Amino acid sequence: MMTKYTEDHEWIAGDGDVVTIGITDYAQNALGDVVFVELPEVGATYSKGDEVAVVESVKAASEVYAPLSGEIVEVNAALESEPGLVNTSATEGGWFFKIKLDNAGDLAGLMDQAAYDAHVASLD
Amino acid sequence: MSVDELLTTPLYDLHVESGGKMVPFAGYSMPVQYPLGIMKEHLHTREKAGLFDVSHMGQAYIRSTDGSDPAKIIEELMPSALAVLKPGKMRYSVLLNDAGGIEDDLMITRTFEPEGSLYVVVNAACKEKDYQILEEKLGGRITLEPLEDRALIALQGPKAESVLSALAPEVADMSFMEATMVTLEGVVCWVSRSGYTGEDGYEISVPADEADAFARRLLMNDDVELIGLGARDSLRLEAGLCLSGHDFDASTSPVEANIIFALGKKRREIGDFAGGDRILAELASGVEKVRVGIVPAGRAPAREGTDIADSDGNIIGKITSGGFGPTYGAPVSMGFVPAAFAENGTELNLMIRGKAHSATVTATPFVPQRYKRKQV
Fold it and tell me: Quick one: B152 exposed, middle or buried, by C-beta within 10 A (0-12, 13-18, 19+)?
């Protein structure tokens, strides 16, 4: 399965037009202990760059932006009772939502693992 | 202000070495958290003992110029019973402006000096302003000597007593809001049994050049962890304690801020302090808005600036402090509501990102305070 990344530290995993989105380990580490995640409604549509979710740590609230345009088809209900999954399992159990992309071809424009690793390295 | 221009405390090297995430705060570079993280730092403090660098706060001596009681003089600007303070006793008070608004809150301690001089601790962000107000209003009658060469270290939590009394057994006998001179590891320190977490604990004023070694000595005890400003804020929020400039500002009276306990019993009858007319009138006939504790029903934290609405959707107030309470296990907030909505149990709505979330007015502290008060 292909995983892509954004500069805002989201990961996008999937091969078809439905992809799973979450935040990276770098992001969860920077945020600190996550205590609440506000997820979008299933069926809602977002354009690339729209605020689609909010992740709250003890200290602050941070917006998550839609990395690509599409319709929400599933959200991770487990985060409601266990938001700490974002910290303990950022790239697996801590996923945020699944989105059906308007144009799966847009995935090609996102960073691959090597490019994201270089991006993170440039921040430290 | 660029990072280069930030001031540092005597514990700066220790913070950096310990992995502290340094952020600008009140003109200082301060640790918001360490690798442990805010949640664990918070819980550790409630369970064992946390060491906080609060050296950015303002420490000063206040003396009178004519040998009279300086406490009597500063009572003109502070509504607490200060003249009656005996050596080694301290009080929480507020610095009032002529309109009865709170410029800052502060701790006032009577020292053991024969002249009855006072030791005060004020908020970092307010120290220049506070000193200026005191000089302006009382100058000529008092002198204010900022103690720039002293660090301030808070040791808070249920293990604070065992940790500190291992170095000086006499601190175990102190009660909440008492202070004394103690020799710790050969260094003469001014120690008070007080704090800003709701827990038992101490604040220790240490000569700046001894602070690093002293903090490291305390950290050798396995019960002690370094705690950053993030957990300091969540701890004081759970304890229902006001943050100056947030839960009150220069327009807010002590009655509105719901800190009437800071008013001396006799003094609140006479009103012999700045803004006394307003405060007496408010005590007699009530206030339009008052600070209350507010617990959101769901998991979404309601942070500072969140609008408070009634059940019909009318905006009636604002959250002034809010976040997640790690010990409470849910979000907690404080904010101002009209007096008619101030009763515990009142249902409110919090407008978080445009959506109404139900919430309930709830008594503070959210987590019981565990001060070691004098047994009577």
Answer: buried
